[in-house]
Design brief:
The chain is an alpha/beta fold. The chain has helices at 10-22, 33-42, 59-68, 84-92, 105-123, 153-164, 172-180, 190-202, and strands spanning 2-6, 26-30, 47-51, 75-79, 97-100, 127-130, 133-136, 141-144, 147-149, 211-214, 218-221. The chain binds calcium ion.
Length: 224
């Protein structure tokens, strides 16, 4: 993970950073509030570790501004202040966890790992919906208006690619690469063949077509 450590005490910052790097993380250090805000907004980090007392701009304000700027990375707030109201303040500002100084490094690493696991489990999509079509990726089931649609594995994968990019065109080349690993002659009609079978199954019974085709561009799933 890419982790931003906002901490003005150089020894603490180095100590935390060394440990995280040993665990294989990529660490950015910001010694002031404004630098933390700037890095948080521009560096695409996966996790924030923010000291509450930072020069220039305190950690709570940095976090509020990052949240206002749509930075969703989980945050751990570090503080010498352990009173309950201050913990609540930190959580209200958008912190996911709170650690009171002095803390044991093992404790910090455990919390970093817990937040990483939580973030990873939120990212795993298992259910997709586009208009009247629902897909359960784990059960390999597709339904249209609640009725099951039985698809072959490649047809399922083609539909999954379309449903993972709602409103966007997915090109024939992208489908060849992602569904067939590009092991086929680009002149092949395999995408068209599968698309036509997929459409026939989805639209069975004269239902309106849910897949839009634009020549030389690609395919797009309709959301309505
Ligand atoms: Ca400090």
């Amino acid at each position: 993970m890419r982790i931003l450590v906002a901490e003005d005490e150089a020894d603490t910052a180095r100590f935390v950073s060394d440990c995280l790097q040993e665990q294989g993380h990529d660490v950015l250090i910001a010694p002031t509030g404004p630098e933390a805000l700037h890095s948080g907004l521009t560096e695409n980090v996966d996790l924030l570790i923010l000291d509450r007392m930072l020069p220039g701009l305190d950690g709570l304000t940095v976090l509020r501004r990052l949240r206002a700027g749509d930075v969703k990375a989980p945050a751990i707030m570090l503080t010498a202040l352990g009173r309950i109201e201050q913990r609540i303040e930190g959580l209200d500002a958008g912190a996911d966890d709170y650690l009171v100084k002095p803390f044991a490094l093992g404790e910090l690493l455990a919390r970093v790992n817990a937040l990483a696991r939580r973030a990873a489990s939120v990212d795993v999509v298992t259910h997709l919906v586009a208009g009247s079509i629902e897909m359960d990726i784990l059960r390999r089931e597709v339904r249209r208006d609640g009725r099951p649609v039985l698809l072959q594995p490649r047809e399922f994968r083609v539909l999954e690619e379309l449903m993972r990019h709602p409103g966007e065109f997915v090109t024939r080349a992208m489908l060849l690469e992602r569904v067939w690993d590009f092991h086929f002659d680009p002149q092949t009609k395999i995408v068209e063949t599968h698309m036509s079978r997929l459409r026939a199954k989805l639209n069975d019974g004269g239902l309106p077509d849910v897949i839009e085709t634009v020549r030389a561009v690609g395919y797009r799933i309709r959301n309505g």
